[in-house]
Amino acid sequence: MAATVFVINPGSTSTKVALYAGRRRRFSEEIRHSRQALDRLGGVIAQEPLRRRAILKALRRDGTSPDGIDVYVGRGGLLRPVAGGVYEVNDRMLADLRQCRYGEHASNLGAILAADLARAHGKVAYIVDPVVTDELSDVARLSGHPDLPRRSVFHALSQKAAGRRAAARLGKPYEACNLIVAHVGGGVSVAAHQNGRVVDVNNALDGEGPFTPERTGGLAVLAFYRYGLAHGLDERGAAELITRNGGLGAYLGTNDSAEIERRIAAGDRQAEGVYEAFIYQVAKEIGAMAAAMSGAVDAVVLTGGVVRGGRFRRQLRRRIGFIAPVLVLAENSEMKALATAAMEVYKGVRTAEVY
């Protein structure tokens, strides 16, 4: 009988779960949480009991006993910088996540929830390619001021999974490829993958790179400072503006790229202009990564929800097609990537790192 892996992927207002038996996905569910209910709890870590109860209900609906699951794996959160890979969840990791020592984000709950369930049933929990995966080259780490080094915070799980799938299409090992991978969803990260390492990437959380459906991307520093003073923004208010209240949503009143493409098709000229600027900024970031790799690029890989839009793909290809072949991997493979990596450790094919 195939070993089973239970996957937990927390988002801002949802918790995605899936059960895999070997390579086969046995069930999956995206559990939706009320924004009002979450906000009343006062912080991400306080959401743990609510989300755990919802997960256990999902397992009961499927008729699955947590005791019968062999491996638990969660999405990796904001930890100290680490290289990509699989990490066993330990007390040091849990302490950093519960204290939000390196930042507060829903992904912090991935390891916490996985460990809660695993330890209750005598099993082990893992995380894979956390968002703080840091493989930056030395030259990419400098920001312009020694007290403010660049941080590597990006969609590492999605990026690495897309990179491996693209390499398979090219008939080469991931470790032998030079790829530019653009994850384009609510946030946007564009990374240079060089021989299996992400040597440069925009910090997709703190305000680097293109504007996105809901994030501001890079802003003029002094202009933002003056804006913050004028509007009385504290750190939380500034973070809200940068990560949730910017981008397409700020310009057009919606962060739904599919809706925006429908509005453009119906003749909305404002939507067309803003969407073109969004595509333009993504293209510029891809071009920057091509320069970072001295033009030696095997493929540009596009992944994430926005990539499903036909207009987005056509207009972006028009701008970046000269760089390298463009591979579109629009489907989300994060859950499968988590399950596969954890199963490889369980079978002894891969070794888990220690945090």
Describe how the helices and strands are arranged.
Blueprint lengths: L3 E7 L3 E8 L2 E9 L2 H7 L6 H15 L8 E5 L10 E3 L2 H8 L9 H13 L4 E4 L9 H4 L14 H15 L7 E7 L3 E7 L2 E5 L19 H11 L3 H9 L3 H6 L4 H9 L3 H24 L6 E5 L6 H11 L5 E4 L4 H13 L9
Parallel strand pairs: 1-4, 4-6, 7-10, 10-11
Antiparallel strand pairs: 1-2, 2-3, 5-6, 7-8, 8-9
Helix pairs in contact: 3-4, 10-11, 11-12
Brief summary:
With 355 residues, the chain is of the alpha/beta class. It is 41% helix and 18% strand. It has 2 domains: 4-132 and 334-346, 2-Layer Sandwich (Nucleotidyltransferase, domain 5); 171-324, ATPase, nucleotide binding domain (Nucleotidyltransferase, domain 5), CATH 3.30.420.40.
Essential attributes:
single chain; 355 residues; alpha/beta; Nucleotidyltransferase, domain 5; 2 domains; 6-stranded mixed β-sheet; 5-stranded mixed β-sheet; 13 helices; globular
Spatial gap, N to C terminus:
31 Å
Number of strand segments: 11
Number of helices: 13
Low-confidence stretches: none
Q: What is the 3D form?
A: globular
Structure report:
This protein has 13 helices and 11 strands. With 355 residues, it is α/β, with parallel strands linked by helices. The protein folds into 2 domains: 4-132 and 334-346, ATPase, nucleotide binding domain (Nucleotidyltransferase, domain 5), CATH 3.30.420; 171-324, Nucleotidyltransferase, domain 5. Helix 3 crosses helix 4 (108-120) and helix 11 (269-292) packs across helix 12 (310-320). Helices cover 41% and strands 18% of the residues. It has helices at residues 35-41, 48-62, 91-98, 108-120, 138-141, 156-170, 221-231, 235-243, 247-252, 257-265, 269-292, 310-320, 334-346, and strands at residues 4-10, 14-21, 24-32, 71-75, 86-88, 125-128, 178-184, 188-194, 197-201, 299-303, 326-329. Strands 3-2-1-4-6-5 form a 6-stranded mixed sheet, with helices on both faces.
